[in-house]
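Students often ask why we bother predicting the structure of a whole assembly rather than each chain alone. The short answer is interfaces. A chain on its own may look different once its partners are present, and contacts between molecules only exist in the joint model. In this exercise we take two input lines together and write out one structure for the complete complex. Read the inputs first and try to guess which parts will touch.
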Amino acid sequence: MADLRPLSDGRPTDSRAQLILVTGFVIAVVLIALALVMNSAIYTENLATRSDSSGATEAAAYQRAVESAALDAFEYAHVVNDSGYVGLNRNVTDAIAGIDAISTRQEATHGHVPNLSVAATVNGTAISDDAGVFDSQSNADNWTVATDISGVRAFTIHVDDRTDLNQSGNREFRVVADPVSGGDRWTMNVTRNATTNEVVVGVNATGSYDECRRSSLKPWINVTAGTVGSEPCDAMTFAEGVTGPYTLRIRNGSGIEGSYSLVVNDNVSVLYGTAGFGDPSDEPALYNMTVNMVYRTAELDYRTEIEIAPGDHDG
Amino acid sequence: MVTPPAARGRGAQSSGHFDRDESGQAHTLEGVVAALILLSAVIFALEMTAVTPLSASTSSQHLENQQEATARGVLASAAETDALERAVLFWNTSAERFWNTSGLGYYASGPPPNELGRMLNRSFDSRGIAYNVFVVYQDDEGERDSRRLIYQGRPSDNAVSAARSVTLFDNDPLYDHESVATGTTVSATGDYFAPDASPGSVYNVVRVEVVVWRI
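Now the answer. The structure tokens for the assembled complex follow.
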């Protein structure tokens, strides 16, 4: 640097030394600020790109896999059913235990420990008729399907031929959900429009009437899913507006021909006394199943309940 | 500019004048050098970059995350449409290997000719991403065993993986070379690679693992 020595006239150069110190200080501050900015940028990017290490993603994927497997196990239990609630419960419990045993071993190799168990099952009754008119076992046209129930799942109706359907008002086929303690009824009727030859599904819920029309010859009516001829029917929400337990009735069962099936959440012995395989048949079935799932990792303890009830609705 | 000395031999006084004039020149030079140093520092600071996780390269963490998410998505989608289960049951019982594979028993030159293969092809092949698919199952001794479904080589250090479990039941059918269900169930044949590992209706639980890396 220039003139660090005293000037030749003897004046000191103190002011320059101060300037150098200040400059050095400023440069140090600038460097520290730069280092801070760079480090925070790198740290932010690190955070932004850090993948999930807690195992939450794996837990969600495992839950989906279990939901799918439990649904298959539930349906398979009815295929190999030995026609009793004890056998059905054993089937689903064994299946879930089998899935648990194998998948736990596989997940454990990745540091994840799952656990599956059947928490509860609800007994139900599967009611179905393969062919003919929808009358009772004693051939009554107006009859009660189930009394004092609160849930119906997988209720499907197949119209064998729309020409067999009665016309509206003329002893039309109806399904009625009638609340035990009074209140709004829910009614669905299936008729044929003589002019357009369409199948008309009318729903009377919460005091208002609406309908869906289809031109298919042999439509499927999925009552609990709310579809007619595989297309959504906005008017149809099963047991809409019905509060509390209800009685499910069929009116004018001879006004339709085809097949139907449904599962209600009450024991077959309560509803029918004994299981019968007549016309319609009433068999023991599970209404639903609840599976407890636990998924643990080093940083996660995830617990959930998975409810399996194929074709269920909230009515 | 520097003023030349007025005359020779003027002694200390004239020498003092000369020093002051020379210091002006030195200050100028010093200013220029200082400016250059400062300019260099600014340029250096502007040019300075760090290798961060998002810096573009084949080993970028960001890329790895994207590949992992894609692999998860493919597996989830395949599981929802049952394409994953059909691919696992895409089994030639007479040759005891997956359909249309060579003697190796796995797909090496391309994806399997089924829906899972098409999904993997659409997601990865066109983007220069290689993948291996393994099927992990429980063997006769109750140990964890693994079989290659697709093997495209040794993964790089920056490979990522995703997995999905599929439960096979005793009545699940095997599929023919056109992905049509055959009348043979998985439990009825003794030629399937995974054994019946559970006494109940469950046949086995297979874990399909996809390993993905950029090439």
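Check your guess against this: The mean pLDDT of chain A is 87.
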